[in-house]
Amino acid sequence: MSDPVDERLVDTLRSARNVVALTGAGVSAESGIATFRDDETGLWSRFSIEEFGSPEGFARQPGRVWEWYVERRDAMLRARPNPAHLALARLERHVASLTVITQNIDGLHQRAGSTRVLELHGSIRTVRCGAADHGPFAWPEGRALAHCPVCGAPLRPNVVWFGERLDSGRIQAADRAAQECDVLLAIGTSGLVAPAATFPMTARAHGARLVDINPVATPLSRHARHVLRGPAGELLPPVVAAAWPD
Ligand code: BV8
Fold first, then answer.
1. Per-residue pLDDT tens over the stretch 152-186
2. To test the ligand 1 pocket, which listed residue (49, 58, 162) has its Cβ within 8 A of the most ligand atoms?
3. Which of ligand 1's atoms lies nearest the C-alpha of 24?
């Protein structure tokens, strides 16, 4: 017998016009994709951020970083959207606007049917030159480190590493969506990485209600009006279904 849904949250969603979902690695956990900071299973508890999450690490060992992304890309291509991704795509059909601001590179929101997705940290779909502004290019065939067709430098995944600037257009669009929304759902993010972690506070500052969906509390939790403490794939779908039983 599942727990009764939170009627206050259902009312908040039903009366919302513009919604933002800020998602992190946790929204894809139930699709079998590793998060970064979960104990034991998190990527950063098994791999060094400096080696695999920074341009310096790539410059030192392009082949090892490339191989790490090829493994992660294989897992992402095998993965399927889970009920949390699908619940957001369903929610989009019932509100004036839903903007998904995601830190994830796996493309699962789009595969679930979400149409307005801002990929703050890039995407596993393409690669770009590791030395100059060449690209983006489609991911090359094979698994070996590939090289830029323009200048021959090692290719890199088209993602944003620590210390790298995010795309300014995406940041501005995310900031605007956070300022204009009535509700911001923070789903599966530890809320530790900037500038992504700033958007819930921007939304709150402009009067939005914050919803925290995560098995554990994060720095965002104390600002939340509603909390779903558990897996997003289990807790979000019943709330969306209760708001719009179509
Ligand atoms: C920039 C690449 C500026 C893609 C990643 C000191 C203080 C504050 C900030 C900084 C600082 N020093 C440096 C900074 C800035 C830095 C930063 O924020 N560092 C932090 C760590 C302190 N940020 C940057 O460098 C950014 N760039 O600021 O540029 C600039 C300006 C001018 C000129 C140059 C530069 C770039 C940040 C992007 C880094 N890229 N990845 C990839 O390979 O995937 S980081 C990585 O972290 C991913 O993108 C990931 O998405 C992101 C955040 O993590 P989460 O998504 O939240 O994932 P995490 O595992 O942490 O948490 C998962 C959560 O899910 C957990 O809470 C868990 O409980 C929950 N969960 C688990 N299962 C479920 C679940 N929830 C729901 N359901 C479940 N089933």
1. 999 999 999 999 999 999 999 999 999 999 999 99
2. 162
3. 56
